[in-house]
Write a sequence for this structure.
């Protein structure tokens, strides 16, 4: 079963205690996409991310489509 829950900050320590009381293989905690989005945003802003302009390669695609008509 998969479940997504939101915990108010004031109850987080109690929730963490509850999670620790469960058997180690009982649950699997996955982080939200926030960290992945933050990492990719930083990579993009730093200029290290390989990007391709939108129009690059469009001429080849257009020619291929027109030739099929």
């Amino acid at each position: 079963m998969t479940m997504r829950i939101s915990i108010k900050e004031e109850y987080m320590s109690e929730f963490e205690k509850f999670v620790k009381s469960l058997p180690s293989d009982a649950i699997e905690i996955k982080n939200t996409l926030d960290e992945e989005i933050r990492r990719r945003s930083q990579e993009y802003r730093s200029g290290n991310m390989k990007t391709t302009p939108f129009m690059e390669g469009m001429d080849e695609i257009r020619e291929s489509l027109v030739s099929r008509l």
